[in-house]
């Protein structure tokens, strides 16, 4: 979805894990709560989201992943969006059997281990049970909250990843929440490449090529124009030469001929008189 729509994914879980790893005050507050499967206080996550939405990369739109998780968070989000003159396009509920969640957590643990990444402290069967309990008591009421506001779309999260992606996309299109091509283009325009990145190097290359191509017609036009001017000069020179030839050769001949005719006439007249 990030690639398709050119928008950012804002995951409160990821942001909190980064804060824990960096040992920030927020991270220190959240660490134990997260490890036990509870929910971090509302004001903490609302503050994080409010700051993040203001970042330039979120200008084109964003996906809130794992937020809001409580009714007070949803109310705070409504307020935030109102203040920032933003509109919530849709709320997507991914419905998954609880039994499937445990095997997904196990798969994630195995994949993270394979990649050599640090395993999440809350990815254990015991903490998962607690997280599910937090979900039921604090997050599930949001289904009612958003369906009452006609914002909720429920997608079957038991399907394969690409099928879930397709279903979300179709739902967003049906809601008129997105115009993929237009948004993707404006996203590319809105997010210029950062200096020093691979992307910026590639962009610079393309820009250079484009500039060269743009300059080429100008250069060849100049050349063509120069040729045209030169050609005219040459042609003019040729014409002048031709004229000079005519004047130098034929004119004297003609005048000589004329003179001879006149002289012959005079002689004939004189003879006739005699
Ligand atoms: P997640 O990565 O979304 O599974 O979140 C991991 C943990 O971060 C959760 O179990 C909570 O402890 C905490 N967390 C993430 N998002 C929120 C939120 N919106 N409100 C409260 N706690 C959150």
From TrEMBL:
Q: Where is the composition biased (Low complexity)?
A: 185-204
Q: Name where it's found.
A: Cytoplasm
Task: Name one molecular function that GO assigns to this entry.
Answer: ATP binding
GO cellular component labels: cytoplasm
Q: What is its EC number?
A: 2.7.4.3
Q: Does the keyword Glycoprotein apply?
A: no
User: Which PROSITE patterns did the record assign?
Assistant: ADENYLATE_KINASE
Principal cellular location given in the protein's record: cytoplasm
Reactions catalysed, as given in the entry:
AMP + ATP = 2 ADP
Q: Which family does it belong to?
A: Belongs to the adenylate kinase family.
Q: Domain annotation text?
A: Consists of three domains, a large central CORE domain and two small peripheral domains, NMPbind and LID, which undergo movements during catalysis. The LID domain closes over the site of phosphoryl transfer upon ATP binding. Assembling and dissambling the active center during each catalytic cycle provides an effective means to prevent ATP hydrolysis.
Name this polypeptide is given: Adenylate kinase
């Amino acid at each position: 979805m990030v690639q398709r729509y050119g928008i950012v994914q804002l995951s409160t879980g990821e942001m909190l894990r980064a804060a824990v790893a960096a040992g920030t005050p927020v991270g220190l507050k959240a660490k134990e709560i997260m490890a036990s499967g509870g929910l971090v206080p509302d004001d903490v996550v609302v503050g994080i989201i409010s700051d993040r939405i203001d970042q330039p990369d979120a200008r084109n739109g964003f996906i809130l992943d794992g937020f809001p998780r409580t009714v007070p968070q949803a109310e705070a989000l409504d307020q935030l969006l109102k203040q920032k003159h933003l509109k919530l396009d849709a709320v997507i509920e991914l419905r998954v059997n609880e039994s499937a969640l445990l095997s997904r957590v196990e798969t994630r643990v195995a994949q993270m281990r394979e990649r050599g990444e640090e395993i999440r402290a809350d990815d254990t069967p015991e903490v998962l049970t607690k997280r599910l309990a937090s979900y039921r008591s604090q997050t599930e009421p949001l289904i009612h909250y958003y369906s009452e506001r006609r914002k909720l779309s429920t997608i079957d999260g038991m399907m394969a990843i690409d099928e879930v992606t397709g279903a979300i996309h179709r739902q967003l299109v049906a809601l008129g929440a997105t115009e993929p091509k237009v948004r993707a283009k404006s996203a590319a325009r809105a997010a210029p490449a950062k200096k020093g990145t691979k992307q910026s190097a590639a962009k610079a290359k393309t820009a250079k090529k484009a500039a060269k191509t743009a300059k080429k017609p100008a250069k060849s036009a100049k050349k063509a124009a120069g040729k045209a001017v030169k050609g005219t000069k040459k042609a003019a020179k040729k014409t002048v030469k031709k004229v000079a030839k005519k004047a130098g050769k034929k004119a004297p001949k003609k005048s000589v001929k004329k003179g001879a005719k006149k002289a012959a006439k005079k002689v004939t007249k004189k003879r006739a008189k005699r």
